[in-house]
Amino acid sequence: MVKYIRIAINTLQEYFVYRVNFFFGRLQVFIFFVMFFSLWSAVSAGRSSLGVYSIPQIYSYFVVGYIIKAFVFTTRTADIGGDIQNGNFSTLLIKPISTLKYYFSRDIIDKLFNLFFMFWEFILILLLFKPELAMPSLFNFIAFILFLFLSIISFFFYSLVISFIAFWSEDAWSSRFLFGVVFITIFSGQYIPLDFLPPVIGKILDYTPYPYMFYYPLKVWLGQIDQNMIYLRLLNGSLICIFFYFLSQFMWLKGKQKYQSYGN
Amino acid sequence: MSTIQVKNLTRTFQIFDKKPGLGASIKSIFYRPQRTVHAVENVSFEIKQGELVGFIGPNGAGKTTTLKCLSGLLYPSSGNISVLGFKPSDRKYEYLNQIGFVMGQKNQLWWDIPPQETFLLNKAIYNISDTDYQKRLDFFIKTLDIGDIISVQTKKLSLGQRMKCEFVAALLHNPKVLFLDEPTIGLDVIAAQKIRDFVKEINQQFKTTVILTSHNMNDVEELCKRVILIDQGRIKFDGLLSNLTKKFAELKILKFVFENKISKTDIKKFGEIVDGDGYSYTIKVSKEKYLSVASKILTTLPVTDLNIEDTPIEDVIRQVYTDKN
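ok -> structure tokens follow
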């Protein structure tokens, strides 16, 4: 355990090295919210709802969604593909540490780092814009937290699977871009809520991991899924998580035998 | 029992050759004929505990591939490897805890933070006690003279400084087996010497088994009694470095200094002139004739000094490669 805490500490130290990156990173969050509230206050002028969403629910969808994005979809596992391709993965493999735990330690500190600063930014934004947000019931809040944990773990293993493709293919970045960026952004509901899409697409997406990482946690926050459905979605989300865990383990076992350790 | 046992090790890679040009690049999207390359083929050897063995050969000979198989980074295509009683490709923690690997062209140091942070991480990874850590770090700092650089960001260190810190990171846990892949590549003569002295020291003091690959023959000559010469994936020679010279060197180098100026014509008849300014000459003579040639020159010309040397190891190795071709 001590070794993984130390990995987390070193990762945190890396973040503080680049002060400008750090500052601009935080500024980017702030700019997003300024733009978001300016845009949506114009769009929602004179309206009380948009589809099945009230205006406060729309605000919540994107504001809470931004927090989910920062917390779930930030990952260091994206580096693995490149490291496998250029052989830098070797420096990790010769050490008595678990690759999975190594990257999970880095991811956790990454998320906590984001969460810490986002908390203060969030307070500032609420004070500045005073948006009316939809708040969940206690039950829905607990279910939301459960979904959030599930999303973090599911996405971690999903991202590992994408990175491990690099054991077999030299095109590590294209698969990362397609499955890790395009699919995640569109099919998880980050651009627009999935119920704005034709119902048939929503039904198909139910059989993919994407809505479980972003859309359903938000629907739970907004109270738009009934209790029985929440249990069902949690069960589905858990099965998806387990599936990607075993798939990543299988790919790891096979992939390390294929590892070429390029370069001297 | 040997620390390292390798039997019939073969490692192949699938590669495809792309013809030059954009057209060939486009074609390669649809069609990539693969061919199998034997990086290492039927290699067998044993290394005892505390031995320091040089693995030498031209580029692409299979040296690094062998080291990577020994460390567990690569799975062998066939054959058996045992290091410290373990099968390296299993990558058991008990095994990884006992090996160190310095790769001349790969960093294990964290790039953006000072080396001491990597050292602390390795302390945690290898479960080194505070006392041992401090004792070893003090030893490394003193031996490698790195006291003032371990708190500087890794990326701001020179190559030589970084290499010294790479050694510390690889040795903090006092490994029983150390793999060194081109450890002095790109270093200036002073830094390279410091690294060689350091390797010698840890080999003698801790009885660490060391396998070294290097193109720098100074590394090999100074550190390794035994060498394994590999070419095109096959072992060409395995034995004492001195025997390599005996086996493959066909020439001796004779260096004379004369009292008076001697013409080249007078020297030429004894052997091939390598260098000479009239007052001193260096000539190459076959191993069979060098004694009689030296004797003849001593009796017929005004010699004030004579030196007989073996062919430099670089020339011997070059000759082995040339003979093969």
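Chain A has a mean pLDDT of 88.
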